[in-house]
Amino acid sequence: MTLVIFLVNGSLGTSIAVAGTFSLIRFRSATSGSRELIAIFLVMIIGLACGTGYLFLSILFTLFILGVWFLLENQQIKSDNQRRRLLTITVANQDKVQEVIQSSLNQFCLEIDMITINSTNAGESLSIVYEVELKSDTDDFQVASYLTSNIAECDVALTKKAKKRKNL
Prior knowledge:
Elements: H1 2-8, H2 12-28, H3 34-51, H4 55-79, E1 84-92, H5 97-108, E2 109-120, E3 125-134, H6 140-150, E4 154-159
Antiparallel strand pairs: 1-3, 1-4, 2-3
Helix pairs in contact: 2-3, 3-4, 5-6
């Protein structure tokens, strides 16, 4: 914001153009998140710096922001260990199968959300989809092998396609 104020520097026409551009971008496009908004904002500042004749300042600001962005992304990649999974269990329709699955998942998961239950083969088998968050010391193979060994006639699919929680 300091750079925007510096670049506008009392010019009424430039400030109206900047405000109009920001509002047009913000309200005319569906943004996917805070990163995209920050990127659009930074591109606008760099374009404004180039357009007002501060080429050296725009290059310096671009390099600085890209360096900070790279460091933050690199830090997040190191610490981002997504533990959310999409778990699909296909099992024969038996009494108390839900309780067995629930008790098994409680050992390995911090959070368990049942998404769907589908019956197939005229109700003979169930396909249950969960979105789970695994504990930090739990491996995907532990969960899959435990479920297949403790539940009779069970097929397990465990994928990382569960939605990440959005953190700002």
